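Ticket #4471: structure output looks truncated?

Reporter: J.K.
Steps to reproduce: submitted the chain below (625 residues) through the standard prediction queue, then opened the result file.
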Amino acid sequence: MNKADSERIATILEKKGYKPALEKSEADLIVVNMCSVRQSAVDRVYGKIRDFAKLKAQNPKLKTVLTGCVLNKDRAKFAKGFDQILKFKDLLKYQPKYQNKSLAYIPISNGCSNFCSYCVVPFTRGHLICQKHKEILEEVKNAVKEDAKEIWLLGQNVNDYHDKVINFAKLIKTINDIPSDFKFFFISPHPKNFSDELINILAKCEKFGKRLNLPVQSGDNEILKKMRRPYTVEQYKNLVSKIRKKIPDIFLSTDIIVGFPGETKKQFENTVKLFKQMNFDMAYIAKYSLRPGTAASEMKDTVSLKEKEKRWKILNDILLKKWGRKTHVNKKIIVVLGPTASGKSDLAVKLARKFNGEIISADSRQVYRGMDIGTGKITKKEMQSIPHYLLDIVSPKKRFDVVQYRNLAIKTIDKIFRKGKVPILCGGTGFYIQAVIDGIIIPEVKPDWQLRKKLEQLTTDQLLNRLKKLDPSRTKTIDKKNRRRLIRALEIIIKTKRSVPVLKKNPLPYPVFMLGIKKEKTELKKLIKKRLLKRLKEGMIEEVKKLHKSGVSWKRLEEFGLEYRFVAQYLQKKLAYNEMINLIQKEIEHYTKRQMTWFKRDERIKWIKNYKQAEKLVKNFLGNK
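Returned output as attached by the reporter:
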């Protein structure tokens, strides 16, 4: 719900003339959309106040606004850290710009009238208000018209939805009848009124994504009563049985709270028993935390934090064991790699469309915002509505390394698995790919600015020669003219007194299939030339001008290497136009040789020449008939 609200808030601000900033440090306005459902979320917002104070010291014009679910007890404290606390009204009526065009979050209601004893939603969002069904349908139609492939219907209790004669089941049926290629999902329903009518309609809806989160919260009837959850364990089990009978391949998840006030060990054991019986595919397990204003806040919190953590671990371990049993059967990863200009992105999109995949970029320069043409970043049209990740995630003014990349990639892989899809890692940066799948990690060495200053006084050849003496193997794979990488490699070696990479740990626990695109040298040379001329025509020089104008220094642009180095030199009048083109062509050809040197060391890679070969190999790997 907060994601949907944030998209709508961004739309409101854009209509008022605001434009998104690349970084917080560049912003004149920061809006924090918070959630008070859990104390940990509130604490994170408190933690940002000090960061904002530092930003304001640098930019006195900066204004900070807090919105979303704000409890009355928190307002006074937050008022000291934010310039304004306000409520954006009538958010439901705004048609947002979706952050990801392939994925649309559509609220169908706001607030809740159930008043579960642990929940603050009725106090922060108010009683249930339902969006008019015609407006919901219009937003769904607009989203799929813009090529959305996933529609998520949102509400604190979606199956409480009603609009005159339309209930939630009828709304679902109407959405399913919209003619387009998409899947719909919804969160979160309440077991109390999950009707037979809804189950029967879902079973017949071919556009239903067959994922259902059905919060049980506890496996003990007395605790459910204290929670003001108007159903029993027996009724919940009966409901799940009906759903699984009608929709046998449903992916069923749940929410559970451990350590609710008064929960005894025996009552928790009842939850463990139910948890095992239901065999959930996923569970969101929370340790109870007091929320002021709720009925539960008047109860004595009898379960210690240590005991809550113990109970959380017991349920989580049950879930992990189930995942462990299924990991090597259901969770598999595809890697598409090859030299630059070989057609990796196109192949990855075709495989994603065929095998229900989503794509994670493995390119060390495509992570930077504004670096589109020069890095060959895939366009929205070329994506063909397939979700892509780890593109445009950091300002080119900032440093971004393989450690940060790997951490984000691992989280993204888990996210794709939770959606029941196949992660496809696609790119030409061999070190990034290997860091993810094999767990090769460069130590998180903090910058040593004095050492860097000394190294920057050396010529590129001197840096390379020093690296050869300290780590000959790294010299074979590094971009030999990229001063930034040479300096960083030397910094790590000098500080750790070990080669790079120095650690090999935490390889992915999933089967990985690696596809490499093979091109003959003469063909690849022609492709590089053709792509270079295309990029120049599309405005690559203007892109570099724009980056420099936005504050990216010439030195920083040259550090990115390849096209950016030589275009930056051309714009500084260090090179003639034709000389720039020749140098770029020659440097990219050398770069592809370095890429292939890295790739050829890995005997796992299956080299292919066309899509037909790739499809057959992937089909066998995934076990698809």
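Triage note (M.O.): checked the attachment and the full token line is present. The CA atoms of residues 133 and 166 lie 7 Å apart.
Status: closed, working as intended.
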